[in-house]
């Protein structure tokens, strides 16, 4: 039979067990059937074969981003305004964009903004500044970490938050320590008051339409598979409609959200287990988020944060946890017993210990040898935590995207010494602990190559020193975004490496990330992206 797709003249990093680097491959029905020399693969070319000539470039398996938020990113791309450091350099820039957007809004409409990094633009705007810029509209600005936000007085009024409103459980409305008045900064569950108001009008169609743009961006960066962290029911319905309508051009894994009550109990009641679905849309597992943000100074650590506290921040500050341990243990144990892969976020060492307490209790109640339970983000892995991960067979689902974009804030908030144990991939590899990497977009950018570069150079985009003793090789960094990403989703038989029988998902790069100067990795561009033997970008 002639192949549907043939790749020629490539330098292929197959990421298989033997580390072979052939020149070409052939695929039929979206799966690889042969791999070898270009001359051998030309024998598979027929009249209807799609041929891609890589012209000697490096080819890698399609990137597997094992933890991101494409559903919320989809809506934000359509209706929110980006305030990332490449768009705003000063507080005046932030206020000017708010003023421009709000002046054009119809009466009563919210202004919504995202990815503000106050460290890169001179600090948070004041409540008075927000009011002056917002032209009377309620506005909400989500900090880049997704755990904190800024609201103006009109937003507090629109959400019915009175001046004497008590803090919600597991959250805080920050107040001026001298006057007791709101500063506008809101933390964790307090931020969700405003997020719920803004997202309340989102429809399944909004998510689906925005996902067209998200897919374009992912494919432009060589990502062929992404797992949607904390997926709500509304997004699950939107994704199923997209699949039915033939609108998928990449692969999606669903990690059902513990925030969306009663989604996980409904999955348990329906008998739906991890792995349900197909190669395009599949339920990966379930997730809860009890830990928070280091760059936003809310993640739970045993030792207090260092550096200047934001007005209204508790002093000393060791962060906060968002669940009661007994409650979360009951939830996670029920899901685990029902055949759902459990994932719990832990960022600081206290947060990771909390996640491990819960997962260890679930395993004690229902032992499973190959459970692949994941600590999501899993940033501050001290030696005792590393030992717990190894002992329990847990996955360190590492937020490598934080390294490049938020590394400077980690140094400022935790101190240079702490970086020895932040995202310690060399130590994790030495201990045999699986540690896939992820972007957590839209918290960070979609592009995986900036994170891959930071894993190798241990430098952030601002040049912050992330401690070179934990630097890894380029091939080890790539494994975190290919083979390990697939394994952490129980999809290693289908993706993560380029071998006969596996999906023909791959990316052609303009830079050989395995041999180039490590500082050049972050600037890598994708020449072509192929999903199931179909060219989806470039070429």
Task: Please give a structural write-up.
By secondary structure, the protein is of the alpha/beta class. Among the domains are: 1-61 and 496-539, Urease, subunit C, domain 1, CATH 2.30.40.10; 72-199, Diaminopimelate Epimerase, Chain A, domain 1 (Roll). 32% of the residues lie in helices and 21% in strands. Strands 7-14-15-16-17-18-19 form a 7-stranded parallel β-sheet. A 6-stranded mixed β-sheet has the order 8-9-10-11-13-12, sandwiched between helices. Strands 2-6-20-21-22 form a 5-stranded mixed β-sheet, covered by helices on one side. The two termini are 25 Å apart.
Label the overall shape: globular
CATH class of the domain at 72-199: Alpha Beta
Average residue-wise pLDDT: 96
Structural class per helix/strand content? alpha/beta
Strand order of the largest sheet: 7-14-15-16-17-18-19
**Distance separating the two termini:** 25 Å
Number of separate strands? 22
The residue ranges in which pLDDT falls below 50 over 5 or more consecutive positions are: none
Q: In angstroms, what is the radius of gyration?
A: 23 Å
* Portion in strands: 15-25%
CATH architecture of the domain at 72-199: Roll
The CATH topology of the domain at 72-199 comes to Diaminopimelate Epimerase, Chain A, domain 1
Strand count, sense and barrel status of the largest sheet are: 7 strands, parallel
Q: Number of helix segments?
A: 17
Helix content: 25-40%
């Amino acid at each position: 039979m002639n192949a549907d797709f043939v790749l020629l003249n490539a330098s292929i990093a197959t990421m298989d067990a033997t580390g072979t680097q052939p020149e070409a491959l052939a695929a039929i029905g979206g799966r690889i059937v042969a791999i070898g020399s270009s001359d051998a693969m030309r024998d598979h070319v027929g009249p209807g074969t799609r041929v891609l000539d890589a012209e000697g470039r490096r080819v890698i398996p399609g990137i597997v981003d094992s933890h991101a938020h494409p559903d919320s990113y989809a809506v934000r791309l359509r209706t929110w305004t980006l305030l990332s450091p490449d768009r705003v350099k000063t507080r005046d820039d932030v206020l000017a964009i708010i003023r421009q957007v709000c002046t054009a809004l119809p009466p009563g409409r919210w202004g919504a903004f995202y990815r503000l990094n106050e460290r890169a633009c001179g600090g948070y705007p004041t409540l008075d500044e927000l009011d002056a810029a917002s032209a009377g509209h309620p506005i909400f600005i989500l900090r880049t970490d997704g755990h904190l936000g800024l609201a103006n007085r009109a937003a507090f009024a629109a959400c019915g938050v009175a001046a004497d409103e008590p803090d919600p459980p597991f959250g805080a409305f920050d107040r001026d320590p001298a006057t007791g008045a709101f500063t506008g900064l809101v933390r964790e569950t307090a931020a969700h008051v405003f997020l719920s108001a803004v997202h309340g009008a989102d429809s399944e169609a909004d998510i689906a339409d925005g996902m067209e743009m998200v897919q374009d961006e992912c494919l432009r960066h060589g990502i062929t598979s992404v797992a949607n962290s904390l997926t709500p029911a509304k997004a699950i319905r939107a994704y199923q409609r997209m699949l039915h309508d033939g609108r998928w051009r990449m692969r999606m894994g669903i990690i059902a959200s513990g925030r969306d009550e009663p989604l996980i109990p409904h999955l348990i009641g329906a008998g739906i287990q991890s792995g349900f679905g197909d190669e395009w849309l599949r339920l990966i597992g379930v997730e809860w988020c009890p830990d928070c943000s280091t760059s936003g100074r809310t993640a739970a650590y045993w030792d207090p944060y260092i550096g200047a506290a934001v007005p209204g921040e508790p002093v000393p500050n060791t962060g906060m946890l968002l669940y009661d341990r007994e409650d979360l243990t009951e939830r996670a144990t029920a899901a685990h017993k029902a055949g759902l892969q459990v994932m719990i976020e832990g960022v600081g060492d206290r947060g990771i210990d909390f996640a491990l307490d819960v997962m260890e209790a679930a395993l004690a109640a229902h032992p499973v040898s190959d459970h692949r339970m994941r600590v999501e983000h899993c940033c501050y892995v001290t030696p005792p935590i590393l030992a717990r991960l190894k002992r329990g067979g847990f996955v360190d689902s590492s937020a490598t995207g934080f390294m490049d974009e938020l590394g400077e804030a980690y140094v400022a908030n935790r101190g240079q010494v702490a970086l020895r144990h932040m995202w310690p991939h060399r130590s994790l590899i030495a201990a045999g602990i699986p540690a896939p990497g992820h972007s957590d977009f839209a918290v960070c950018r979609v592009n995986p190559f900036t994170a891959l570069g930071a894993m190798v150079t241990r430098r952030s985009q601002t040049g912050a020193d992330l401690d070179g003793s934990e630097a890894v090789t380029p091939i080890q960094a790539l494994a975190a975004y290919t083979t390990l990403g697939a394994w952490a989703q129980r999809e290693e038989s289908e993706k993560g490496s380029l071998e006969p029988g596996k999906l023909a998902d791959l990316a052609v790069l303009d830079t050989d990330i395995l041999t180039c100067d490590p500082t050049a990795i972050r600037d890598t561009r994708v020449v072509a992206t192929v999903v199931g033997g179909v060219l989806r970008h470039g070429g």
